[in-house]
Amino acid sequence: MKRALPLFLLTALLAMAQEAAPAAEAPDPLLMWKWINFGILVLALGWLMGKTLPGAFKSRTESIQKGIAEAQAQKKDADKRAAVVDQRMSALGTEIESFRVQSRLEMEKEGERLREETAAHIRKLEQQATVEIESAGKAARRELRVYASDLALKLAEERIRTRLTADTESALVNNFVADLKRQESKN
């Protein structure tokens, strides 16, 4: 309002100066009342603008400042989230590498465990095979002994039958009976 009053007076003087130039014509008797009316109108408009515009400007300024503050808060929040995401992204490479190293170690351990299990299983199978071979060898030797003894008996029987004649047979039987009688008499 304080700035508007000098501006209004300057505008009024300029308007009067322009009207004063054509002095050759007859002056309008109502001209002064028109100027007074114009001045009242300007003062009323100035007063109304002085009353309403500062509040409107102030509320608009406050809303703009509030919007700026909210935007800055949102920007800070977005920057924080972006920093967290950037940090995670930068750590992602190291995490992936650590996962690779860890999985490689686990695979090596699992491979070693499988090799040990396989070796133990092979040893167990070798032991079983050795036991089975030994038992099969013993059984084969037993069968071979039985077969050999059967063969020897058959061979002996054949030899005896070929050598045994009726005279030798009766002599053997007589000797056997005599041996039995001697043993009976001793008892």
Describe the structure.
The chain has helices at residues 4-20, 31-163, 166-186. The protein has 187 residues and is an all-alpha fold.
Find the structural class using helix and strand composition: mainly alpha
Distance between the termini: 167 Å
> What is the alpha-carbon Rg in Å?
68 Å
Order of helices and strands: HHH
- Give the beta-strand count: 0
Low-confidence parts: none
| Average pLDDT taken over every residue | 85
Q: Report the major sheet.
A: none
Give me the secondary-structure topology.
Elements: H1 4-20, H2 31-163, H3 166-186
Helix pairs in contact: 1-2
Keywords:
0% strand; mainly alpha; 187 residues
Task: Give a concise summary.
The protein is an all-alpha fold. Helix content is 91%, strand content 0%.
